[in-house]
Amino acid sequence: MATTISPLKVGDQAPSFSAPDQKGNTRTLEEFKGSKLVLYFYPKDNTPGCTAQACNLNENLATLTKAGYKVLGVSKDPAKSHLKFIDKFGLQFDLLCDEELHVHNAYGVWGLKKFMGREYDGTHRTTFVIDENGVLEQVIAKPKTKAHAEEILQPEG
């Protein structure tokens, strides 16, 4: 299992959140009570890994929905970027705009990263599967971008 910087683990209560989606609608954890929620954090719209991940979830959305899951992506990109990303790839789920990093920080996914010898602060790609009662069912650190839906539907262990 990949390690995560998030202190959250399976069995923990999911942190409450409130953030605007790409249309400016405020979205909260509470609105998903009674449904399973796939809350996935990704670094940036329109980048290769993030596009592969979003498209994999989108291509498997019917299967995820049938299994009782709703999907919500989160990045620090603004609404304008999210709208272009959704339109370009035909995404059928909403993306939260977390420009102030409140949701990132609540879930512990913002922090120091290293890439090609350079250190910087950024989003650690992490997915939280939250059950109908707001409890973390899965924490997937460093998900497989091209097979992410499968990881959610067929957890290891």
Keywords for this structure?
single chain; about 160 residues; alpha/beta; Glutaredoxin; five-stranded mixed beta sheet; two-stranded antiparallel sheet; 5 helices
SSE map:
Elements lengths: L17 E3 L5 E3 L7 E6 L6 H12 L1 H6 L2 E7 L3 H11 L4 E4 L4 H6 L2 E6 L2 E6 L2 E5 L5 E6 L6 H6 L4
Describe the structure in your own words:
The protein is α/β, with parallel strands linked by helices and 157 residues long. The chain has one domain: Glutaredoxin (3-Layer(aba) Sandwich). Helices cover 26% and strands 29% of the residues. It is built from five helices and nine strands; from the N terminus they run βββααβαβαββββα. It has helices at 48-59, 61-66, 79-89, 102-107, 148-153; strands at residues 18-20, 26-28, 36-41, 69-75, 94-97, 110-115, 118-123, 126-130, 136-141. The strands form three sheets. The protein has a five-stranded mixed beta sheet. Strands 1-2 form a two-stranded antiparallel sheet. The termini are close together.
